[in-house]
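no rush on this but wanted to send it before i forget. theres a chain ive been looking at and ive put its sequence and its fold in token form underneath. i want to understand how the tokens follow from the sequence so walk me through it. thanks a lot i owe you, the record is right below:
>
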Amino acid sequence: NISNEDNEKTIMEVINDESIDLDVKKQIIINEKFSKYSIERIQKELINVIINEDKLKVSYENIILCFKAENKLCENIINNISLHIKEYIKEDINQYKEKYGEEILEKLKIEYIFNEKVSFEDFELLVKTFDIRIKELKECSSIKLEFLIDQSLIEFNLNNFEYIRENLESKLVKFITLNIDAYIENINEYDISGYEEQLLSNTEINNENKKNIANSIDISKLKNINIIELIMQEIIDADDKEINNRILNDLDINFETKIKFIKIILQKTTDKEVATEYIHLLGEEYANINTSKNGCSIEYNTLNIELCDILKEKGYISSFKKGKKKNIVIYNKVNR
């Protein structure tokens, strides 16, 4: 009985024997059951036979050697990896970094990632084991690009930013969000026109980074309701008179939101004349607050009570009380 080890040794002696005809060697490879060839010292003419007969040992070293020999990832190698994908996802390609160098490993990874012959099913399983940050995106399918973004495998730089913007616009905000520190570091290099509101409302971005984003854009271009939200979150200040007037005159902003907005302004501003103008924009019943008139009346509700508390605290009115007609009676300061 010949052991498997002895059989392998005998086969390899024959395969490496230069005196034996090449066609004989090919027939041995095809006919023998042995299926774990390492190709490090195999004749180049025999390698494709080994691969095509699915007798290549599952090892990234074999893949690296094939890649080096052809300077590309041949289709039969891609097919071979696919046949043994469950084994390859357990392998670590980086163990060969010292032997073959980081450059060749990076080239092989990139070649696999952007090769159209690689199915998405294999791509999805194998690429996340690569430990890579892609410096320059190349043409690939949308589904593969989306996966690379979601797995944070793409380096955040201007070229990659523009590539994603042009080829998978729906994932640009996600790309920025996953790389927010790199984006903030060079914030003025990136044109986020059209994406400002998505970024500023994104719950995955903290308020400090939102402040940096807000400081880099023209706030007046945002929707009024989103500006209010940013002000309420203390990401931006309510110090732009034109924007504030625009918000208070916006018929699409509900009254409750406007009252909350006014309360924030009253707490922050020291300019009572401007603040009074804002109050008057709330509507007719508010138009006589902090004027020469002795008093006025507004609807009795929780929000208006809170508003009156602030008005009194900040010296806009002298006092207020609940009226007899479900109203609040406000008394202005006599000597304005």
Residues 255-268 form the longest helix (14 residues). The mean pLDDT is 93. Residues 200 and 210 are 6 Å apart (CA to CA).
